[in-house]
Amino acid sequence: MSNAASTPVIVAVDLGSNSFHLTLAQLQHNNLQIIGRLKEKVRLAAGLDEQHYLTEEAQQRALACLQQFNERLADTPAINVRAVGTYTLRKAKNAQQFLLKAQQVLGYPIEVISGREEARLIFEGVAHFQLTNKKQLIIDIGGGSTEFAIGQAFEPVLLDSLQMGCVSFTQKYFPDNQLSKRNFKRAIIAARLELISIQDLYLREGWEATIGTSGTIESILDICRVNNFNQSEVTLDCLQNLKQQLIDMKDFEHIDLQGLPENRREILPAGLAILIAIFRTLKIDKMATSPAALREGLLYELVGLEKTADIKERAIKGLIARYHIDMDQARRVNQTAQQLWQQVAKYWELDDDYFKQMLSWSARCHEVGLSINFSKQQKHGEYIIKNTDLSGFSIPQQRLLALLVRSFRRKFPMHRYEAIDDEALRIKMIRLARLLRLAVIFNHRRRDLQWPKATISIDKDHVQIQFPEGYLDEHGLLEADLEQEQAYLALVNLPFDYS
Question: Start and end of every Ppx/GppA phosphatase C-terminal domain (predicted)?
Fold first, then answer.
């Protein structure tokens, strides 16, 4: 059997705001070999109504595309597939309801990733595709957002996502399909206003090479090449000339440019306006392009799954350092939580690395809210984790981590868990929270103590802890904490006993 035949196929699915992409690859001789691509123009961003709900029509377009992807995947093992949603699914208020249907049609889980995580994965894809020691600025203009990354080799130092994309800007600034100077001016000014938030930071950081990635930028370079045979990079002169050509064509129906794919015609003007604004604001002279982007980043991380765990681990360590968490207490609570997990993992169906890691991360970060104040630290901790960019984490994973931290003390926020649509996942997250709460209670004295061999008995969700005879009589504070915990859990019908 050949090496290619024995190497598993890995798959990246990108539910973008303009197009959905399916990319299949194999690792051959330590190189990622693309063996197939499918692309469907879904224009999901165009399906967001004024209240930011995905219309039924847009959902049906998306589901029809995912049905095609499902047929192509043909029972590929789930561990070899990663599907992500980007800007529009971050924005849509009914994204969760749509994702339940989408996952059923695709047959695989779909993660919604943050803008900065999207930028990181784009950087990862480009960095692996074209190895260089130069410090690079990488830009990807999508349908609903534009991602920016500065980094060297495989290490990004700045990551950002701005709310400007070729589909959303087409709707907002070219609603009449007119290629007027006024429409272009409005779009360019709007993009420059978005760019102000990163302008000074990026110019201070500096870079040696600028790389554009995405169909929009590649299409613009193709048009520039046709107009100037030796044009190998995008320049501001080319962009300005192209803008004037489009203005002379007056409206979308008369756009006729050699090198422009038909499916790019409607979004080219908005994409061009955004790119002109980027060139002017960040003082870019020229921009090369790369065929690699988000999908390649996903594939490279699928090839080395341990690296994804490393990225998450670095993010957690960064959070701990940034908020000056007591590392000794974090270690103690984590050790206790892991000991508790080992006793109940199999019976409670938590014997999966994902749940073990979530418990560990929440144990180590549970005091992050102390940086604001003590009395409501669990609420502050939830807010911090939900609103901090944690590399490697999808938005749902980050929210679940934040919810665990929200749950580590005081009243158990059962109503917050009811928002988890997946019943099995909801039950498991509640169980993880109970383990975290116990680990915190057992370490209230904030000292390295040798705990007695306490036995945990589980009967469905009824937890009972048995201490050695006479132990609680000698440890009145622990008994008081357990009594309070019993009362808190009784309020939400979670039975807990100790003796």
Answer: 311-486
Residue type, 447: R
pLDDT tens for residues 33-73? 889 999 999 999 999 999 999 999 999 999 999 999 999 99
Contact status, residue 364 vs residue 440, Cβ threshold 8 Å: no
User: Which tokens in the block code for residue 428?
Assistant: 């498991």
Q: Which long-range contacts (CB under 8 A, 24 or more apart) does 206-209 make?
A: 206/135, 207/135, 207/136, 207/137, 207/150, 208/134, 208/135, 208/136, 209/132, 209/134, 209/135, 209/136, 209/137, 209/288
Q: Start-end ranges of CATH 3.30.420.40 in the chain?
A: 3-113
Residues of the chain with CATH 3.30.420.150: 116-294
- CATH class for the domain made up of 304-450: mainly alpha
Q: What's the order of all strands across the beta sheet hosting 81-85?
A: 31-41, 19-28, 10-15, 81-85, 110-112
Q: Which fold has domain 3-113?
A: Nucleotidyltransferase; domain 5 (3.30.420)
For 379, other C-beta atoms within 10 Å of its C-beta total: 16
**pLDDT per residue as tens digits for the range 403-438:** 999 999 999 999 999 988 889 999 999 999 999 999
